[in-house]
Amino acid sequence: MKPTVVMTQTKMYTNQSVNIVHLPLIETKSLSFDIQVLGEHYQWLLFSSQNAVRHFLPYMSQVSYEKVAVIGIKTAQICEKYGIEVDFIPHNYSQEGFLESFNAESSDKILIPSSKGARP
């Protein structure tokens, strides 16, 4: 009898020596927000996660922006999958790494679609 392992993240993993049960424990939902923010012009859109891209995708055509920055290669890949050109990815895939290497003008407006519990 093979042991059973519960995987909470992805269905990509398989293994012949164990039974893998895929059980996601987190559900993401789009949040309501003040749609008037879409009427502004932004120099940058900043996506810090794949979920941010997925949930903001329906609004991309409604917002005026010049460039897109992402934190992490997986976030960049999902942007590319949806036809969003990425202009900046920090070498250190963290908020701290982003702040160390991102050079915006002090007058730049940056829109950051994020979760309710995201770090500021």
Description:
InterPro entries: 4pyrrol_syn_uPrphyn_synt_sf, 4pyrrol_synth_uPrphyn_synth, UROS/Hem4. Belongs to the uroporphyrinogen-III synthase family. With about 120 residues, the protein is of the alpha/beta class. The chain has a domain at about 35-110: Rossmann fold, CATH 3.40.50.10090. It is built from three helices and five strands; from the N terminus they run βββαβααβ. The longest helix has 9 residues, at about 75-80. The termini are far apart.
List keywords for this structure.
single chain, 120 residues, alpha/beta, Rossmann fold, three-stranded parallel sheet, 5 strands, 20% strand
Question: Helices and strands in order, then pairings?
Answer:
Blueprint: E1 4-7, E2 19-22, E3 41-47, H1 50-56, E4 64-70, H2 73-81, H3 95-101, E5 110-111
Parallel strand pairs: 1-2, 3-4, 3-5
Helix pairs in contact: 1-2
Catalytic activity: hydroxymethylbilane = uroporphyrinogen III + H2O
GO molecular function: uroporphyrinogen-III synthase activity
Protein name: Uroporphyrinogen-III synthase
